[in-house]
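As a warm-up, study this chain.
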Amino acid sequence: DNLSLVRASAMRRTSPPGKKLSTLPRIESSTVGLDSIEAAADAEHRAAARREMPGGPAWREAAERASAGGSCELALIERGLDDADVIALVASLQREAAGSALTGSRPINNVTSLDLRGNAIGDAGAAALSGLLRGEGCAICTLRLWGNRIGDEGGAALVSALARPNSSLTSLDLGKQGQPVGDAVAAALASSLPRCACPLQTLDLRYCGMTDKGALPLAAALPRCRALRFLDVRYNAIGATGATALAVALGRADSALRVWVTSNAYNDQDAADLAALLSVDPTTAPLAEGQERLWF
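Now compare it with the structure written out below.
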């Protein structure tokens, strides 16, 4: 069955104890659902987190790892972290950064990846993370916040950090928050992305409750987002109007950009109408098949 396939595939690709996980489990059957794939991937990441961070206060472990030198990937998945924990974690990293700046011993912050999926982080924790991203010398390239409780204010705070000069953030995951933040985050992104200084390449906004209200301004911003390569807005409430706007904008955007917009609030007839519309314009005709650059 599907579950057995997932387990068998994950077991074959589990990294040996003490080694960093380099790849996610590859699902070999096309019949396995997205939820099963995500469950297998999350299980692998949790196992890696347990091996690399054996216990103790999360912020203390993080501070110790950040002070060890060299690049650092912190995985604190499903640890029950709330706003207070994240604020303490950020404060520890910032204190270590201040010490490094005074001694001149090394770059201010050597954390390159921060994975906080499946916790209870809200707006206050998101604001603290935004402050960390804004800090001089912050080296975080990947920030994963899937499955938390971030609202409109926290999402806007994180997005505003994208405009920091010399930002290093290349991947941001804000999917599946505990409330429908998609429209507010999309509007903030629409105003920040075209002028942001960071090389953001991957943006995950699945299960965010985004509607056409958010999709329209986001679509308008896409042609000006030169660095963006992957935009995932699946499993939202985007209708035919929003999906069409995203598709038309993609035709004018960088040819390397890919957009996933399947499993939203439009039906098969809407998809057929969209394909027909795209096929008429030479700039969007290559997108009409729903493959390669646009999945709808």
